[in-house]
Amino acid sequence: MDLFLLLDLLHALSAIAWLAGGAVLALILLTAARDDASARRAVPEADLIGRRVLRPAGLAALMTGLALAGIAGLALQAWVILSAALLLGSLAARRLLLAPAFARAARYPDTASQALALVRWDLAAQLATLALMIARPGWTGAAILAGLATCIALALALLRSLPGEEHEMA
């Protein structure tokens, strides 16, 4: 098996794990929207999924995807750069914003809804990354990128309208 096929296999497996973790996280958020007790129970679950699934799978998908893009001569394509930026932003936000929010929610359970609101942003970034990977717009595809931005804005608006006490996204 040559290097490209091995990287492609690893990329596909890590992307599947990353997306599956996001799907589980979305289900956790849906159950957390019921009441404050559900939100408090969801925080350690969301933290565990993030640390054990999303972070390693996202990092593996990023590294193998960049290696594949480099080998295929696609490294400067808009969808590659923007997807990598979104994934790096998600990983950084998980480390710099979500980890402290989860720790705060563990100490002060009344802040659980605020921590979970940050998770919604992380899922929105994952959805945007997935959309970029599917649409694969070029730098001249301004209409596609504008449509993608509109879809992200609508998704965030829908996330804000989920039932629950805490509707602030940041």
Automatic annotation (TrEMBL):
Keywords: Membrane, Transmembrane, Transmembrane helix
InterPro entries in the record: DUF2269_transmembrane
Keyword hit for Transmembrane: yes
Record keyword Transmembrane helix present: yes
Domain of life, source organism: Bacteria
Transmembrane annotation, as ranges: 12-32, 53-72, 78-97, 141-159
Pfam families: DUF2269
Name this protein carries in UniProt: DUF2269 family protein
Organism, as annotated: uncultured Rubellimicrobium sp
